[in-house]
Hints:
The complex is a heterodimer of chains A (about 750) and B (about 160).
Chain A: H1 6-15, H2 32-39, E1 45-48, E2 51-53, E3 59-63, H3 72-84, E4 91-95, H4 105-113, H5 123-136, H6 147-175, E5 182-185, E6 188-191, E7 197-199, H7 204-208, E8 256-262, E9 270-274, E10 284-289, E11 293-298, H8 301-310, E12 312-315, H9 325-342, E13 346-351, H10 354-359, E14 363-371, E15 383-389, E16 392-397, H11 402-413, E17 420-424, H12 438-447, E18 454-457, H13 460-465, E19 473-481, E20 487-495, E21 512-518, H14 534-551, H15 556-563, H16 568-581, E22 591-600, E23 603-614, E24 617-628, H17 635-655, E25 660-661, E26 664-665, E27 683-689, H18 706-718
Parallel strand pairs in A: 3-4, 8-18, 16-17, 20-21, 24-27
Antiparallel strand pairs in A: 1-2, 2-3, 5-6, 6-7, 8-11, 9-12, 10-11, 13-21, 14-19, 15-16, 15-18, 19-20, 22-23, 23-24, 25-26
Helix pairs in contact in A: 1-4, 3-6, 4-5, 4-6, 11-12, 14-18, 17-18
Chain B: E1 2-6, E2 9-13, H1 21-28, E3 47-50, E4 53-56, E5 69-71, H2 85-92, H3 102-115, H4 121-128, H5 138-156
Parallel strand pairs in B: 1-5
Antiparallel strand pairs in B: 1-2, 3-4, 3-5
Helix pairs in contact in B: 2-5, 3-4
Amino acid sequence: xxxxxxxxxxxxxxxxxxxxxxxxxxxxxxxxxxxxxxxxxxxxxxxxxxxxxxxxxxxxxxxxxxxxxxxxxxxxxxxxxxxxxxxxxxxxxxxxxxxxxxxxxxxxxxxxxxxxxxxxxxxxxxxxxxxxxxxxxxxxxxxxxxxxxxxxxxxxxxxxxxxxxxxxxxxxxxxxxxxxxxxxxxxxxxxxxxxxxxxxxxxxxxxxxxxxxxxxxxxxxxxxxxxxxxxxxxxxxxxxxxxxxxxxxxxxxxxxxxxxxxxxxxxxxxxxxxxxxxxxxxxxxxxxxxxxxxxxxxxxxxxxxxxxxxxxxxxxxxxxxxxxxxxxxxxxxxxxxxxxxxxxxxxxxxxxxxxxxxxxxxxxxxxxxxxxxxxxxxxxxxxxxxxxxxxxxxxxxxxxxxxxxxxxxxxxxxxxxxxxxxxxxxxxxxxxxxxxxxxxxxxxxxxxxxxxxxxxxxxxxxxxxxxxxxxxxxxxxxxxxxxxxxxxxxxxxxxxxxxxxxxxxxxxxxxxxxxxxxxxxxxxxxxxxxxxxxxxxxxxxxxxxxxxxxxxxxxxxxxxxxxxxxxxxxxxxxxxxxxxxxxxxxxxxxxxxxxxxxxxxxxxxxxxxxxxxxxxxxxxxxxxxxxxxxxxxxxxxxxxxxxxxxxxxxxxxxxxxxxxxxxxxxxxxxxxxxxxxxxxxxxxxxxxxxxxxxxxxxxxxxxxxxxxxxxxxxxxxxxxxxxxxxxxxxxxxxxxxxxxxxx
Amino acid sequence: xxxxxxxxxxxxxxxxxxxxxxxxxxxxxxxxxxxxxxxxxxxxxxxxxxxxxxxxxxxxxxxxxxxxxxxxxxxxxxxxxxxxxxxxxxxxxxxxxxxxxxxxxxxxxxxxxxxxxxxxxxxxxxxxxxxxxxxxxxxxxxxxxxxxxxxxxxxxxxxxxxxx
Lengths: 743, 164
């Protein structure tokens, strides 16, 4: 993972001559033969690497993405089944093995090339390049809300259509009729004039020998019969009876259990371990010093964790032991000031001449916002079961990048990647955390020391204190208002940029903009956190535009709407959210309503939050969400992802703060890193727009807009402007204050 | 050796009496549907029933569960009638996302409906606020409980009141 970034990919594309391609799943020289032993039984036919057929006519989609609740397994299977004209009731899926054949070359192309068309005769060369590049980077990532826009659009649909084409051709050959006279329907081939029909399975073997079209014609949304419908998710039945297997559920004969503790101050080494401090405890097998962590292996996890608590360990000092959270925020501010003083700002986006406009402006609005570090806190703590035997390393875990993890483990253990066999399980939440392989590497290193399988489980405390955190940040703004109250200049400076690049950009028509940033490194490890940089920038930009609207004496919805005259797609989403929420209608006393809109991962989301303030505490009551992802492949999947993204973002905005003291994380478990619970959960209504624009993601775009919608609603209810998250830092009973900054 | 009654079956187990029931269920009895989430009774992922009442198995010593009826997620469907109405409602409402917390959610919901076949919103809040769902399935959990309440009432026949 450390070797990869979105920018690295773009660089790779540029080195190749900046190739532009359309995604194609089927390469001449079909790799189906190579992968068949990995994915199919003898009586099954692998039509191409993404689909196989059983003798009973069951169609199995081979999905190269992890399932962590976002519904990728189901939606991607739908996309294949749609183009294949399969009988959905007889469609199933398996997750692709962690093998280089399933590296996400479609994803790579989505990042580098977009949807630009490409001559078919070059497809093989270009696809070969991308496959090689992604294999080289060991990429098999589920993240960035990309499964549907990339793998779904470029691989599953194309693979389904290509498979259908060869099934029809095989039937035409067998029956001696023109292929044009045949139609495909519900996993059957039907001869139009005679009505003769047979299952796909009866032509599978012959079809697999035919050359598949690399650019089959795909359906239009009007032709869809599976996509756009609310099928039940394939993984749900196993998740209501306890049978779904998560990483933590792996069971192997003779398996032992490990508990681990890394240095509480990030990045420091173990100085000494006193093994005698636990040697008499029951069930203890071994104490292992991993240099940056210590682990205890025992017959049971409880025994291992009790011993770890007792184990006397001393960590070396790194110099970061005195760092306090207030030092970090002070460093951000001084680095921001220095960057301006020294002219070392890094330009993010610039148009017009913002500084000249500000210099002559009659009215300037300024504000400064702050957000804390955040932990992912998935319900399933990090864990991995590892077993080294017969010159291979087997791993059972839940990961967002199985191939990348296998490559990391191969590197650490000095093994060939083909000798590392990773069995990816259901993820008990990912949110970006399970893209980082630290826990899997630890398990593999422990297993290398013992002759039996080891299940390593992080305690909740370890999970929270050894995370890769969403960055803390400060963002400050200046806007010039013209005589009509419209913004003529927008200046924004913030600290620490990650991905995606466009996160701080605004959709509003403002002629003069200068958006810049300053890097201000700390010792706190960074990680992708649901919607990544969008999670903070939507709060910053959509709070500030609200402040400008209020300062101009205008309605926050109408103000945004006016500034979106160049962005009709945004306007429609904003209008729908406002209309469905009853924007402008009266609310009870102490209630407030706030609106926000943000595009992320190709999807535009507008949300209206309604809150009630009771005795200084905010209660979110209702959220109305409008979403345009281009086309909703699985509408109930989009609705559930909007609900999920809203509650994830609402939890963070209301309660979440990871703070640093003495160089280490203060919070440890759910009592001090508080979660939204059912009694605080608002009613959520989601309305979908199928605009027909390019397909966007769904797993993350529900999150960014809710923090500003909430803060704007709190302002509407109380007159208190929340400029620092989480909201729980603020006393909302002081409604007489114009604004409130937390010292 | 201790004997536990889990899902109506006796289990003879050699464990330290102080071990939390959670780890005995998962590691000794092999019933992995019950999940570890926090270890301090804050999240509800480990919820099982002791004599029909929901408890957090991560903080209950196994010694306290001896001679009690323990029910886990693996034990609520019946061979005769299939899925429990709560499980069916969870499928109908498409409640689970990652699914990790759902064994605990379902065990809390089953216990709620056993005590109160027609819970209102406040009853649901009171019974379910000990169970965290990081995927935010709360609106669907609420709907699922109301649907399960209707399924139970339909099973019980006319005359059972409901306000779901």
